[in-house]
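User: Quick one: structure for sequence A, then sequence B.

Assistant: Sequence A:
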Amino acid sequence: MDDESNFVVAGLSLLAKVSVEAIGRIIVEADAEGVVAVAWKARISMRFAVKLQFCLANVPATKVLRDPGFGEFPFLDEEMEEILAVYSG
């Protein structure tokens, strides 16, 4: 990752209270679900989560998760926690 990406990851880590290493794995794997879960945990909008998927994790356009409507996230809170647990555990 370049310096700008490292800066974004560090910020996400602080906001979401998720380790830099876990977020790094999510990005390396281009895991759309993981990016969305980190954004949710960081209290960042789903709209911005879409941008993170494209710009930070290079998720292919066909795999990007989008807002199902009205700024909502596509998963329940419990599902988001489970997604993050995979990378944090």
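Sequence B:
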Amino acid sequence: MKKLILLSIYLAAAFKVKLANAEFVIEDSVNSDGVSITNVGGINLFENFYSVITFFLALLFLSSIVGGIFAGFKFFIAGGSEKVIEDARKWGIYSLITFSISLFSYIILNIFKHLVY
């Protein structure tokens, strides 16, 4: 699994993936003391949070794709070995779970972004 995560990071860096482009306008929220809640030192906290979470979700998505390819490759070279087929099946299930988690998390994050802002 560690190799899969490292490979995902390498692929994201190699293809210079632009993972988050949060271009939306946020009105500055000010608390009762007159201090900005969303802007701290000119940096919008929600945009930074959104960018970081989107980056990690993209890594999770890439790792699910690489895991699915690896599972298919293991099925292809199994040669009838029950142990290798079972291992490939586990890789396939885990990659599908990872894919669905990353997809639904991204959808929920964007729904939240559009509802709040």
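Confidence is low (pLDDT under 50) at residues 15-26. The first helix runs from residue 2 to 14.

User: Thanks, that's what I needed.
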